[in-house]
Amino acid sequence: MADHAVTTDHPPQLRHHFDDMHQQFDSATFGMWVFLLTEIMFFGGMFGAYTVYRSMYPDAFAATSNFMNPAFGAANTAVLIVSSLTMALAVRAAHLGQQKVLQIMLVLTMIFGTAFLVIKGFEYHEHWEQMKVPLIAGHWSWDGPLAPPQYAHQAQILFCFYFFMTGFHAIHMVVGLGIMTTILLMARKGSFGPTYYTPVEVSGLYWHFVDIVWIFLFPLLYLIGHTKNLI
Amino acid sequence: MSTALQEPQTETVNYLNAEYGWKSWLFTTDHKRIAVLYLISISVMFALGGVFAGLIRTELLTPEGDLFNSDTYNKVFTMHGVVMIFFFLIPSIPATFGNFLVPMMIGAKDLAFPRINLLSWYIYIAGALFALAAIVMGGVDTGWTFYTPFSTTYSNTFVITAAVGVFIAGFSSILTGLNFIVTVHKMRAPGMTWGRLPLFVWANYATALIQVLGTPVVAITLALVGLERAFHIGIFDPAIGGDPILFQHMFWFYSHPAVYIMILPGMGVISELVTCFSRKGVFGYSFIAGSSLGIAIIGFLVWGHHMFVTGMSMYAGLYFSLLTMFVAVPSAIKVFNWTATMFRGSISYETPMLYAFGFIGLFTIGGLTGLFLGTLGMDVHLTDTYFVVAHFHYVMVGGMVLAYMGALHFWWPKITGRLYPDGWGKFSALLVFVGFNLTFFPQFILGYMGQPRRYHAYAPEFQVLNVMSTAGASVLGVGFLIPLIYLLWSLRYGKPAGNNPWGAKGLEWTTQSPPTTFNFDETPIVTEEAYAYAKHEETHVG
After folding, report:
1. Residue A176: helix, strand or coil by DSSP?
2. Quick check: bond before A58 cis, omega within 30?
3. Predicted TM-score (pTM) of this structure
4. Residues sharing a CB contact under 8 Å with residue B11, sequence separation 6 or more, in sequence order
5. What is the biggest distance separating any 2 CA atoms in chain B, rounded to whole angstroms?
6. Which of B 333-362 lie inside 8 A of A, CB atoms?
7. Among A15, A30, A134, beta carbon nearest to B186
8. CB B97, CB B503: distance < 8 Å
9. Across all residues in chain B, what is the average pLDDT?
10. Phi, psi at residue A132, to the nearest 5°?
């Protein structure tokens, strides 16, 4: 995460070891890009392992897709894309010094982010009801017409990846909401304006990244091989 | 405010005496103080890892497994590996000397993100506490590689605790790397172009790329191991459809580049030492700088050479073997260029230079035996023997630890403002060199003759060489203890060092010793190449 400046030097937000605000802004955004590179490798490890198993057991993985609910997934995709729009508008408002718009956009972003988590919660609950949680003893079963018995073990592995990947993504959403809360509190104090909006910009980068991860998760986990009443 | 050119005084304000009290250390954002915090922490871990090494060598003094039973021995070598690799070697030079020197060498007041720098130290401490907890509770016996399915299904030790420690410590490494990359890009002083960066900075930059790109993958791998161990879904369990080889691919995708995290900063140190004590500009600056990046990039493509005998595809083996040969090229470029730098230089033999000599020789042996192991057919014979153990200790101890010791002796006057007794320094450098070779050279022979690694007992005919190895380890231990004593002694009784005791080039030597909190009173303006030692000597070479 970028180093948000709260010091008392000459321009109030300029930290002592930078020459000017421009250098500070550049460093913070560049730092966030490098951090996102790390995040890409972090999720990349998961996507890589997922891909290996998907190519080892294509039929089994296709069968498990039938237990995913694309309606939830599609709704969440829409929610996140809209939240990215409001985030982008928040950055613009901060840049232009529109304090009221900035706060509204931040609140909207947080509402959409929370909506995503709520929908995800309903979805996890559905898996729980359908006994598709391999991590918890007594909440896993693999039978019925959509569950060919020869795929029992492989299906567990896929569901494990499903929870692992969406779970890490959800953790990133929670962290994002925490960051947004901080930014909102700073915005209410009028911290941001045309000369200083680095924290908004940098948090925006993070927020968009988390959205993009979901854009990849949705087709991989929900859509590939889905045969049952696709929307 | 005094200028940097004044004679050394004992009572100047510097980063060490600017503030007092434990709070001024634990809440500092000064990169130099954080470097000192790291220096102390990793020294403790090095000592701990050294104790485990001593236990291993004591057990191997005799062919019978008499000191430990095999289970205990498994834990001892595992904890030696975990502590040394994740808590000493990986942070060693970047987190201490890199932290201290990268901002100073490029003329900056601090790293780009000072608070993140402090955070990385706290994360390191948290990771180390988990590792220590795993040791105290009873240890881990999987080997530092955490191979599945043993680590996920069969081991009855504290795998998750240790893995959590490594997982956490990884993030301190990522944050250090992130800080270095941004600092080198954005914080350079006027005139400090990329072509003028000291080679130590280049090496740390290349290291930072690996830290940022590789470490997250091992984090996710260890998370999967923890998940599998806790819930037994079968991700890495072949009995229910999992793929244990996938674990090895993911593990080595990080852990092979990680050996370059360990060696690249050491190579950067050697570039500084060789030029300073040869009084000569470096030979082939751009090749040494570029070879650091080359090692970092090719290093990401060779991980499969750890897995030739695991059942990986033969064609993948051919590919990994070929690329392993390629990674030798930039490493050789460095060795040749250091040698060429010394050619017709006015070499002097201060303690740091002795370590540099040791590094070049031992790294060359370590690197070349790496090619033996990278050769497919040869590797089948040598896999999991003491040849492998000797090889990576030649690179890690003969290379990295010697570079670390060289760096410690080179920049100690800058860090503390004190000189250490050079005679003792030379003596202990010699002890380290002799002790090291006596410890590990016999292991090449043992491995070639077939003694497998990771066993607490061995065939009686191997005893002579094992006794030599244990004797060497004792000498090596003394060689590391002596510097501990005289360096601590020098803190109080050492002579004031002055700004530039070695007459070295580089911005860090233009400041007072120890430097002030903000390093430079005025941002320096760089007007010359790195290593602008007596240029006239080069012009008529050849």
Report:
1. helix
2. no
3. 0.93
4. none
5. 72
6. none
7. A30
8. no
9. 93
10. -120, 40
pLDDT one-digit tens code per residue, B39-71:
999 999 999 999 999 999 999 999 998 999 999
Name which of A1, A23, A157 is nearest B235 (Cβ-Cβ).
Answer: A157
> Is some CB atom of chain A closer than 8 A to the CB atom of B227?
yes
For residue B539, pLDDT beyond 50: no
Chain A residues within 8 A of B108 when measuring between CB atoms: 17
Q: Write out the two tokens for B520.
A: 């430079």
Reported ipTM exceeds the 0.85 cut:
yes
Per-residue pLDDT tens over the stretch B452-463: 999 999 999 999
d(CA A135, CA B231): 6
Which residues are paired to A132 by β-bridges? A140
Nearest chain A residue to B219, by CA: A42
Q: Of the candidates A2, A157, A164, which has its C-beta nearest B241's C-beta?
A: A157
Q: Which candidate in A136, A157, A172 is best for mutational testing of the B interface (most B CBs within 10 A)?
A: A157
CB contact under 8 A, B234 and A42: no
The first and second tokens of residue B446, run together, are 């043992």
Q: Say whether pLDDT at A205 is over 80.
A: yes
Give SS3 for B523. Answer: coil
User: In this structure, which amino acid lies at residue B403?
Assistant: A
**CA B363 – CA B341 distance, rounded (Å):** 17
SS3 for A168?
helix
pLDDT in tens, B478-491: 999 999 999 999 99
Neighbouring C-beta atoms of residue B9, cutoff 10 Å: 10
Q: How far is B85 from chain A (nearest CA, A)?
A: 21
Interval B287-310 mean pLDDT: 95
Chain A environment of B303 (Cβ under 8 Å): none
Which residues, 6+ apart, have CB-to-CB distance to B314 below 8 Å? Answer: none
Given an 8 Å threshold on Cβ–Cβ distance, is A157 in contact with B234? yes
Q: Which amino acid is at A110?
A: M
Per-residue CA distances from B499 to B3, B418, B440, B521 (Å): 11, 10, 39, 14
